[in-house]
Amino acid sequence: MSIAISDCKVERVEGPSLQLVNKFYKSCRYSAKAGRGDLVFCVRSKGIIIAALKLVPQEIQSINASQSWLFLRGMCVDPSLRGCGVGQFLLQSIADEIGSTASYCFPFTHLERFYASIGFVLRDPSDLTIPPLVRQSYERLISQGRKVYLMTRQ
């Protein structure tokens, strides 16, 4: 299948429409699920969802300060459209939404350049400035044999 990016539209998904994104994930055999607290975005072409992702807000409160960041999770493009620029279009479209908020993602190793295109850079997982939840999540994925990187966008 081919697609014209000019026919695509990125939109924020909320409320009951989250079920449509979850159906999309399921149709792609992707285990992610969009939830109420997530910032969910999708790409539609002719009214049909062809890609989706979620930004999961996180916050840690400590005695002295609070720290907040975003996890970029659940990035999925319809398998028949991968490599056509749809994912790149979605990432570029949400770059402003991320803004200057510290953001983390765990892309498969072959997708490093893809995420770098909107400013994500590789990080050393032992860096103590990375929130413990991020480091622990990364270490769990690695222990499961996943071939992923830890990347951040500041």
Provide a descriptive summary of the structure in words.
This protein is of the alpha+beta class. The protein is built from 4 helices and 7 strands, in the order E-H-E-E-E-H-E-H-E-H-E. A 7-stranded mixed β-sheet has the order 1-2-3-4-5-7-6, sandwiched between helices. The chain starts with 7 loop residues before the first strand and ends with a strand.
Low-confidence stretches: none
Q: What sort of overall outline do the alpha carbons produce when their principal axes are compared?
A: globular
Structural class: alpha+beta
Question: How many runs of DSSP E, i.e. beta strands?
Answer: 7
Largest sheet: 7 strands, mixed
Keywords:
154 residues, single chain, alpha+beta, Aminopeptidase
Short note summarizing the structure:
26% of the residues lie in helices and 31% in strands. With 154 residues, it is an alpha+beta fold.
